[in-house]
C-alpha cells in the first residue's frame, strides 16, 4: 500500500437494489501527493468499469483487494472510479465478515477495522481522515441513513436519493450506509416499526447521556447523532461517525443493553473525533468507551465506577495475564481484556489524580485532538503518571 499520498475528500454515489442486492457505484476521491507515477487504493471484489485520473481515463490493475492506478500525478489530483456488482463483506479469520453486508431486508455497513474496501475504493488506514459526500439511491419504501447531515432527499417515482454530508474528518472504517424499512422511533433513532415502542424506551435516556458525556469530555463533536436498530440480530453494536447501529437483540423494552448505548455514544469522542493513528492504540478507543459505560452507570443511579472496576478486575484476574494492552497483536485488537483493562487503567489514573484533574485531562485530550489521530504515547505525554500507566498498559501482569 502506497502511503505517499493522502485523500481529503470522498464523494460516493451509490445506487442499491435490495431485492437483487446489486450496487452501482461511483467514487470520486480528492487526493494529493508530491509526485507519483502510480498509486494504490484498497478495493474489494466489485467490478470496476472505468478509472479516471484528473478526468482522463487511466490504466489500472485490480486484483487481491488492491486497485493499482498507473498515472503520473503531482500535487492535487482526483480519482474517479466507476464500479458495480453484488457487494460482499470482507472475510477475516480474526473478526469474521466486515463491511457491506446484506440484512434480511436491506443492508448494513460495519467495517471496523478493515471492511471499508468492500464498498468503495479507499486509502484504508485509521489515520487517513477525509470529509465525505454520500449519495445513495434506494427504492422509496427504504430509509437510508449515512454519516453526517441529510442535505437532500429527492423522490423520483419509485426511488429516493438520499444525500448526506460529513464535513468533519472521518476514517474510512467509520463510513457507513444503513438501508432498511425503518421508522423514526425517536428523533434520529431509526428502527423497524415493530420495535418502535421498545426502542423509544431503551434509547430514551440518550439525551441525558450526551449531556453527561459533554460535561465530562467536552462538547459532542459532530452536528448530530443517529442510531439505527436493525430488524436482524447483530453480534455486537457498532459505532460509525455520528451514528451507531444496534441489532434487534439489543432492545428489550427494559434498557437491558443500556451499557452498550453508552459505549457506542462514547466512541463519538473516543475513536471517532479523537481517532487512532494505528490499530495497536485501540485501547484509546475501547478502554475509554468501556470506562464511559461505568461513568454512565454511576451517574444514572446504577453501580458506582468503583463497583464496576472491582467486577472487571475480578474477571481479568481469572483470565490469562499475557496481553500487553498498550500494544496488542493484531489478533487481540478487540480482545475483551483490551476493553476491561483499558477502563481499569483509566479508573486507576482517576483515583491517583482525583476527579477534577482527571476529567480536566479528558477534556484537554478531546479538545487538543478533536478530529485528529493519536497514539498511546500522546496520551502518556499529556497525562503524566508514567509509572502507573506503564504498569497498566505495557506489563502483562495485572497491577495490584
Ligand atoms: Zn467499542
UniProtKB/TrEMBL annotation:
Superkingdom, natural source: Bacteria
What this protein needs as a cofactor is:
Zn(2+)
Decide whether keyword NAD is in the record: no
Give the E.C. number(s). Answer: 3.4.11.2
- Which Pfam families does the record associate with it? Peptidase_M1, Peptidase_M1_N
Mind telling me which InterPro entries this protein's record contains? Aminopeptidase_N-like_N, Aminopeptidase_N-like_N_sf, M1_LTA4H, Peptidase_M1, Peptidase_M1_dom, Peptidase_M4/M1_CTD_sf
Q: Which reaction does it catalyse?
A: Release of an N-terminal amino acid, Xaa-|-Yaa- from a peptide, amide or arylamide. Xaa is preferably Ala, but may be most amino acids including Pro (slow action). When a terminal hydrophobic residue is followed by a prolyl residue, the two may be released as an intact Xaa-Pro dipeptide
SUPFAM superfamilies hit by this protein: Leukotriene A4 hydrolase N-terminal domain, Metalloproteases ('zincins'), catalytic domain
Q: Which CDD domains match?
A: M1_APN_like (cd09603)
> Does the UniProt entry include the keyword Transcription?
no
- Keyword terms, alphabetized: Cytoplasm, Hydrolase, Metal-binding, Metalloprotease, Protease, Zinc
- Any idea where the Peptidase M1 membrane alanine aminopeptidase domain is? 208-380
Domain spans labelled Aminopeptidase N-like N-terminal: 112-174
Q: List locations, semicolon-separated.
A: Cytoplasm
Q: What is the enzyme's class at the highest EC level?
A: hydrolase
**PANTHER family given in the database record:** LEUKOTRIENE A-4 HYDROLASE
Q: Which family does it belong to?
A: Belongs to the peptidase M1 family.
What name has this protein been given in UniProt? Aminopeptidase N
Amino acid at each position: 500500500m502506497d502511503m505517499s499520498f493522502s485523500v481529503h475528500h470522498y464523494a460516493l454515489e451509490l445506487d442499491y437494489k435490495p431485492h437483487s442486492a446489486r450496487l452501482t457505484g461511483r467514487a470520486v476521491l480528492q487526493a494529493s501527493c508530491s509526485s507519483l507515477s502510480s498509486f494504490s487504493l484498497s478495493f474489494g471484489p466489485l467490478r470496476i468499469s472505468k478509472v479516471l485520473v484528473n478526468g482522463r481515463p487511466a490504466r489500472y490493475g485490480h486484483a487481491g483487494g488492491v486497485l493499482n492506478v498507473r498515472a503520473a500525478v503531482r500535487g492535487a489530483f482526483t480519482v474517479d472510479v466507476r464500479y458495480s456488482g453484488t457487494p460482499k463483506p470482507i472475510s477475516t479469520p480474526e473478526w469474521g465478515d466486515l463491511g457491506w453486508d446484506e440484512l434480511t431486508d436491506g443492508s448494513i455497513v460495519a467495517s471496523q477495522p478493515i471492511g471499508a474496501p468492500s464498498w468503495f475504493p479507499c486509502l484504508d488506514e485509521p489515520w487517513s481522515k477525509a470529509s465525505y459526500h454520500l449519495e445513495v439511491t434506494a427504492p422509496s419504501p427504504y430509509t437510508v441513513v449515512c454519516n453526517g447531515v441529510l442535505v437532500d432527499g429527492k423522490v423520483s417515482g419509485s426511488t429516493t436519493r438520499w444525500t448526506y454530508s460529513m464535513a468533519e474528518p472521518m476514517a474510512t472504517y467509520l463510513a457507513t450506509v444503513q438501508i432498511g424499512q425503518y421508522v423514526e422511533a425517536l428523533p434520529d433513532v431509526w428502527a423497524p416499526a415493530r420495535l418502535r415502542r421498545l426502542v423509544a424506551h431503551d434509547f430514551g435516556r440518550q439525551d441525558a447521556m450526551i449531556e453527561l458525556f459533554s460535561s465530562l469530555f467536552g462538547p459532542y463533536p459532530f452536528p448530530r447523532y443517529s442510531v439505527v436498530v436493525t430488524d436482524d440480530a447483530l453480534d455486537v453494536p457498532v459505532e460509525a461517525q455520528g451514528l451507531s447501529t444496534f441489532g434487534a437483540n439489543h432492545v428489550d423494552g427494559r434498557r437491558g443493553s443500556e451499557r452498550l448505548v453508552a459505549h457506542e455514544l462514547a466512541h463519538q469522542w473516543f475513536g471517532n473525533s479523537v481517532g487512532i493513528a494505528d490499530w495497536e492504540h485501540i485501547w484509546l478507543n475501547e478502554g475509554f468507551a468501556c470506562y464511559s459505560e461505568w461513568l454512565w452507570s454511576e451517574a444514572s443511579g446504577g453501580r458506582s465506577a468503583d463497583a464496576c472496576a472491582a467486577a472487571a478486575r475480578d474477571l481479568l484476574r481469572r483470565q490469562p495475564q499475557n496481553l500487553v494492552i498498550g500494544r496488542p497483536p493484531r489478533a487481540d485488537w478487540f480482545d475483551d481484556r483490551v476493553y476491561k483493562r483499558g477502563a481499569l487503567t483509566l479508573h486507576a489514573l482517576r483515583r491517583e489524580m482525583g476527579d477534577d484533574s482527571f476529567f480536566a485531562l479528558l477534556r484537554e485530550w478531546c479538545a487538543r485532538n478533536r478530529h485528529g489521530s493519536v497514539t498511546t504515547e500522546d496520551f502518556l505525554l499529556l497525562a503524566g503518571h508514567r509509572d502507573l500507566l506503564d504498569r497498566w498498559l505495557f506489563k502483562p501482569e495485572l497491577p495490584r
